[in-house]
Amino acid sequence: MSDDISNAPTTAVAEGPEGQSFHEVADAERNLEVVMDIPVRLSMEVGSASVSIRRLLQLNRGSVVELDRLAGEPLDVLVNGKLIAHGEVVVVNDKFGIRLHDVVSAKKRIETLS
Description:
Blueprint: H1 22-33, E1 42-45, H2 53-58, E2 75-79, E3 82-92, E4 95-103, H3 106-111
Antiparallel strand pairs: 1-2, 2-3, 3-4
């Protein structure tokens, strides 16, 4: 037997992101496809305020509650209560819409799930 292995067949394994094989990436994409049509709640938070129950019970038509956000400041865009972006309110075909400014990275969005 010879120690020469230069003629031995080799198998190349292509790698995807983060060292995953393309088969692993394809499997992950198929698994992700299962959840792509699940509805989620998208909302914008204008601001918030802490009020006492006494003050809450005194609210009536015309009452003004000061929020913790300045006028013109970007609003929080939330999906199922988790921050995903900042944006502004726009009007599209007589309806409100959202123009996104800063979108949280996918990695940070996934981290907030745990």
